[in-house]
């Protein structure tokens, strides 16, 4: 169901996006990793019924269980409310991610976006530092990204990749904001200042 809704939306919303780019965007949005992140973002793990052993071993935080549960919720909404209800749910949960992913080179991949921006605008390469904590079944990763010797972003996640992406996103947003020129005000706009 998720794949159908995302594919339909991408095809209708981005008719000029090359087929290969559409496929990449779709794949990034309907992957198990994306589903697990989505489930985590809405706190779905807290609502999952698990056996004692799975619960004790951190099952509520396992990406595979979270991804399966998220897919089940979308399927249940489809069975109960039909296409429109399922599409509304998917778009409310993924709308921003779809827009980011279809934004162009790098899409929602902030590590790529940051690397391209850093090379183009700052002539530097991002450097990542990653640490982890917790038992293997519930490990958390923490990442920072530095540019020009200065930490520009920090993030965390259930995997090294998620933590680095979160750090890169924070850095990219901070640098993008800094590099984007302030709008020029016309004399008429400045009268009230």
Description:
The protein is mostly helical. It has two domains: 2-101, Orthogonal Bundle (Ribonuclease iii, N-terminal Endonuclease Domain, Chain A); 110-179, Double Stranded RNA Binding Domain, CATH 3.30.160. The chain contains eight helices and three strands, in the order H-H-H-H-H-H-E-E-E-H-H. The protein has helices at residues 2-13, 19-29, 32-41, 52-56, 63-101, 110-122, 160-179, 187-190; strands at 127-133, 140-147, 150-157. It has a three-stranded antiparallel beta sheet with strand order 1-2-3, with helices on one face. Helix 6 (110-122) packs across helix 7 (160-179). The longest helix is centred in the middle third of the chain and has 39 residues, at 63-101. The model has no long low-confidence stretch (mean pLDDT 83).
Short description:
The protein contains 8 helices and 3 strands.
């Amino acid at each position: 169901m998720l794949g159908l809704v995302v594919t339909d939306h991408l095809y209708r919303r981005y008719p000029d996006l090359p087929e290969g780019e559409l496929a990449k965007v779709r794949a990034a949005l309907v992957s198990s990793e994306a589903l697990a992140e989505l489930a985590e973002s809405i706190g779905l793990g807290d609502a999952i019924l698990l056996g004692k052993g799975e619960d004790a071993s951190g099952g509520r935080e396992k990406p595979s269980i979270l991804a399966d549960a998220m897919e089940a919720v979308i399927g249940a909404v489809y069975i109960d409310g039909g296409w429109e209800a399922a599409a509304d749910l998917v778009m409310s949960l993924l709308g921003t991610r779809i827009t980011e992913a279809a934004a162009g080179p790098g899409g929602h991949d902030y590590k790529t976006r940051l690397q391209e921006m850093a090379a183009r605008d700052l002539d530097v390469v991002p450097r990542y530092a990653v640490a982890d904590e917790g038992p293997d079944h519930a490990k958390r990763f923490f990442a920072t990204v530095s540019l020009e010797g200065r930490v520009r972003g920090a993030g965390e996640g259930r995997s090294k990749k998620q933590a680095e992406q979160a750090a890169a996103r924070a850095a990219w947003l901070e640098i993008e904001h800094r590099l984007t020129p302030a709008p020029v005000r016309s004399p008429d706009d400045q009268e009230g200042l």
